[in-house]
Backbone:
């Protein structure tokens, strides 16, 4: 209790200090970049910064003509790792480009923009500087936000229900059948169940599922093997004793929520102003109706965190702050011909309806958009089966050869995707949707050009254009 009160007083003092110093300091925009696995957070940040430094491909950013310079500066938080921009750019723009490794820890980068003033004071006021602080954190951590509202019993019931309908859950179901939740806790049995649950999470992620909690089981870092990461979901026995396996797992779950999830909120989330949530909608559609429904439920749970008034824990942690703009970005739009981008955006808006409604109710401005932070393909048209197909062409990551992809015709009516997903259908009835693992294209950029993209400038305008 003392640490909670002290932390609240410290945050209140710092918030007051920030407010008092605001008229005498450069404005700061804190942009959070989150998303689920393989949604492209690292590429998004790398391409966004590169295109803000060389802005020839950013016509939809309204302040573009007034940006005199963009340059990197030391980040304000000395305790957080720096986002490895140079290393990621080297991977994407080298002679044999490849996708950089995904996010495995929280990191930060500061980009400063020098702007020419406009309006009546433009002639008498000198240029001003706006700092864009980008905070990147693993999507696996994002999954845990919903745990703040759930007890161990609630989480167990939900997790077991979802695993029951998946072939990937067979290994854990077999391990759980050999355990007795009411039996006295023994550490070897606890570790065996935790390993089996972690194996399930890994295989379910590979199969395209999204709601995989606890997220730190997939990226344990220095906590690997600790009791706080050694539990798993179990059905609650009628009257579990204090020394039972179920009670010990309940205690460890509560410790995980308190010491891992809440700590993440306090240290990385509570000071964010704007948020982009990247979603691999195409990957979920390719995986099938159950993966789409799983993604819808996961995003609805996650985005509940953006409405702090709904949860007493979040209200205390955020201390009155709130994120006032949230972009839901369906990534990998370059896997589709541009004629299908409106359908992808409509499906994303419908898929995230529950999540958007929660955020909108909190007063945040939200928008859905189909983007590609780094365009890896070009568009083409081919003859196939006596008809013309709009396709994209790119270099395959596995072989390096060029290939054409027609991902399937996305329906203009999103209900044709969401209705089978909600009803628990095993597969799509009318269409198969394909994806390919394209490698980054080999690029030769002209002076002043950033990497090619799709709507990254529109995303930037929505996220922070009003603050420039």
Residues:
């Amino acid at each position: 209790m003392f640490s909670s009160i002290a932390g609240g007083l410290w945050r209140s003092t710092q918030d007051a200090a920030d407010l008092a110093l605001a008229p005498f300091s450069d404005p700061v925009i804190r942009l959070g970049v989150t998303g689920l696995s393989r949604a492209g957070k690292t590429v998004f940040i790398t391409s966004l910064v590169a295109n803000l430094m060389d802005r020839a491909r950013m016509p939809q950013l309204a302040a573009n003509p007034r940006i005199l310079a963009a340059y990197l500066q030391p980040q304000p938080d000395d305790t957080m790792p720096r986002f490895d921009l140079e290393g990621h750019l080297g991977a994407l723009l080298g002679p044999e480009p490849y996708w950089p490794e995904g996010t495995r820890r929280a990191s930060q980068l500061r980009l400063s923009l020098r702007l020419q003033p406009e309006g009546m004071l433009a002639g008498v006021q000198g240029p001003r500087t706006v700092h864009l602080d980008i905070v990147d954190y693993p999507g696996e951590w994002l999954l845990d936000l919903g745990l703040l509202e759930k007890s161990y019993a609630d989480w167990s019931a939900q997790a077991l229900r979802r695993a029951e309908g998946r072939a990937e859950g067979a290994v854990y179901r077999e391990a759980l059948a050999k355990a007795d939740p009411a039996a006295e806790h023994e550490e070897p049995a606890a570790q065996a169940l935790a390993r089996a649950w972690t194996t399930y999470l890994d295989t379910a992620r590979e199969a395209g599922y999204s709601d995989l909690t606890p997220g730190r089981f997939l990226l344990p870092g220095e906590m690997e093997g600790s009791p706080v990461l050694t539990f798993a979901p179990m059905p609650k026995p009628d009257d579990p004793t204090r020394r039972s396996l179920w009670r010990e797992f309940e205690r460890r779950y509560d410790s995980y929520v308190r010491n891992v999830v809440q700590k993440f909120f306090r240290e990385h989330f509570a000071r964010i102003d704007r948020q982009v949530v990247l979603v691999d909608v195409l990957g979920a559609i390719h995986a099938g109706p159950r993966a789409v429904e799983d993604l819808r439920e996961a995003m609805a749970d996650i985005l509940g965190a953006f409405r702090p008034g709904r949860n007493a824990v979040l209200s205390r942690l955020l201390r009155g702050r709130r994120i006032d703009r949230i972009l839901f970005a369906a990534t990998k739009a370059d896997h589709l011909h541009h004629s299908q981008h409106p359908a992808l955006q409509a499906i994303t808006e419908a898929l995230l309806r529950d999540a958007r409604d929660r955020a909108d109710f909190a007063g945040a401005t939200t928008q859905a958009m189909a983007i590609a932070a780094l365009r890896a393909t070009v568009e083409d048209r081919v003859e196939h089966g006596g008809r013309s197909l709009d396709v994209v062409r790119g270099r395959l990551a596995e072989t390096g050869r060029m290939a054409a992809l027609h991902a399937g015709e996305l329906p203009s009516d999103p209900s044709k995707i969401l209705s089978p997903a909600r009803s628990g259908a095993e597969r799509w009835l009318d269409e198969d949707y394909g994806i390919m693992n394209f490698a980054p294209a080999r690029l030769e950029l002209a002076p002043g050009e950033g990497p090619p993209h799709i709507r990254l400038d529109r995303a930037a305008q929505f996220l922070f254009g009003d603050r420039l």
In short: The CA atoms of residues 350 and 415 lie 8 Å apart. The beta strands are 28-35, 67-73, 107-115, 128-136, 274-279, 325-330, 365-370, 377-384, 387-395, 402-405. The chain has 15 helices and ten strands. Residues 151-264 form one domain.
